[in-house]
Protein 1
Amino acid sequence: MASPCQVILSPNTDSRPADSGIDMIVVHNISLPPNQFGGNGIIELFTNTLDATEHPYYATIAHLKVSSHFLIRRDGQLIQFASCLQRAWHAGVSSWQGRERCNDFSIGIELEGSDDCAFANAQYLSLQALIDALKKRYPIRHIVGHSQIAPGRKTDPGPFFDWQRIT
Ligand SMILES: [Zn+2]
């Protein structure tokens, strides 16, 4: 990793199928509460410690068992929740070019953000450094948005994510 990475392991992971090659990165956005940045909600969601009474929206999601491999906060800070060798639970029902269950063969990267505003420059820098590191370890052939593998169901990373800024 190019920069120090904090590790907070999520229980919401399991083993990848034995024959699944890791060749995809899925880019997401998340903010908890929605459109508020800097709090602990995302970490709490991924570690099953979100307090359903803390915010009306939390009551609708606190029961979910979800995770991603990485979160990039607004200042570019990188947090890892799962080994890339494990399957994180970020994509849900999904398919890409005829392959279903994208969690099986993908690495999930959440950007702290929303569909309604631009991402921070520091996030693009951190994301590209992470992509570069992952490409050295895995034969990544697809970098896609959650909305592309779950169309009609998911909209993230949203219209403000600038695909031109990553390679
Ligand atoms: Zn997503």
Protein 2
Amino acid sequence: MNIMSAIDHRPTLAPCKATACRFVASTAVLVAVLTTPAAADDAMHRLAKVVGTTQANCKQCHPSEVAHWEKTTHFRSLNRLQYAGNSKKYADAMGIASSTLMTTSLCADCHGTRSLVDGAPQVVSGVSCESCHGAARDWLKSHGEYTEGQTFTTLSALRAARSDEVAEHRVQRLESTRKAGMIRPEMLHELARNCLQCHVVGNEQLIAAGHKVASNFELLSWLNGEVRHNFFEDAHTNAAAPSLWQSTTGGTPEQRDRLKFVVGGMAQLEVALQKRAEAASPVYVPQIGAYFAAANGRVTQVNALAGVSQTQSMVARMGPLLGTMFVPMPTDRDTYGAASIEIRELIDAYLAEHDGSDQAALDALTKALPPHYSLQFKEQFLEK
Ligand code: HEC
Ligand code: HEC
Ligand code: HEC
Ligand code: HEC
């Protein structure tokens, strides 16, 4: 097995501090890192943290979420990794053999979930719970544990125990699961950035082979359609916003929709700039440039309707970049890498200061966006 290709091909995943991202934004450093044995060890270490939805038995405590997930395109995304049609075309262009598509290929991290099986990388499912909520090995046990060493007997007993959890324990539990890599619904920036690490493709060779750079992904509508699985408080009702988040923060679905719309657009800017910083090919640069321009248009629209200091700063910062976006320059890495980090910091500042309650003017936009469903989901689950 070629251990080097076991590396995660999605560049910056999960919670990533500005310093760590600055590090990733530098390809010179990145290449050096990827070719050291230590980096290969890191990649194996990372895969070892993925448990797998079946193996983790998420279903035991989240039966409705799992049943819903099984209907989605994400669950079925492995179908694309059959060595046929466009997949074969892309794989051949990348020099990927059919035998490695499901183990070490760069396709496997976006079209599926890999874990270590008997010590070797192997795809264990399509895009899964852990693709979005973070590899679970280190947080699985503690994320639903309300007292130290509490044992799990029945789901209803476990849920009843929630009311006995002391506030201090809750704070510690949320902090420790965050450190262990869990991405919770309240971590909207991390969630959005994580979707986009798959939904915006940065590999220029793959794009040259004909793979799309990006679809018309928009966080609010793409999250509120087939992906939505807010069953925590009521296993039979798919709530309009995460039910646990609603009950712990008092937030409303309208507020959450505004935040999704704003943070979604901002995160598109952040990720577009990150990919643009790493880009050099004349085929890729205009495509990612167009993607950037569209994201900038969305943030500009938010700023016009319900501007806040962070959207103002973004609009002022992005305007001059548009002029150079479509022309590769030797300074691109520094220019766009730095801009991406600035946007990242502005998103965190935005979320620290705003909860959506002060931006009702955005409802004209958010309420007009239809929830997005794939064709297969529509045909099988909506039209009958
Ligand atoms: C032993 C039961 C159990 C298992 C197994 C389990 N969970 Fe949970 N999960 C819970 C409980 C209880 C909560 C509510 C936690 C709380 O009150 O903060 C929860 C909450 C969550 C939340 C929402 C957290 C929030 O802050 O709103 C996510 C996301 C989640 N679980 C994902 C998963 C995933 C993914 C798996 C499988 C890898 C899994 N869980 C397996 C019991 C479990
Ligand atoms: C960075 C993440 C990423 C990587 C890496 C990636 N894909 Fe994709 N791929 C996607 C996404 C997201 C879509 C869905 C795009 C859409 O339609 O919205 C997609 C769509 C596809 C499609 C259907 C559309 C089409 O072009 O026919 C095929 C086939 C495909 N990918 C094959 C591959 C193969 C084979 C590889 C590896 C050589 C690969 N992908 C690598 C994210 C990725
Ligand atoms: C691990 C990579 C990955 C992550 C993370 C991810 N996706 Fe996807 N998603 C894909 C791929 C790949 C496809 C295309 C699958 C196919 O067509 O076979 C897809 C398809 C979809 C579709 C179906 C679109 C259609 O019209 O077919 C929706 C909706 C979607 N994703 C929403 C989201 C949202 C919202 C998030 C974040 C909360 C997210 N995705 C996170 C990889 C990912
Ligand atoms: C495409 C990314 C994605 C996948 C796949 C995914 N989740 Fe989520 N999950 C999210 C997002 C984003 C939210 C918050 C949704 C919102 O804001 O409406 C969420 C919310 C939740 C919640 C909170 C629900 C509530 O009512 O409070 C739980 C529990 C959960 N997910 C568990 C799971 C489990 C278990 C799986 C696998 C079967 C899974 N998720 C798969 C992205 C994902």
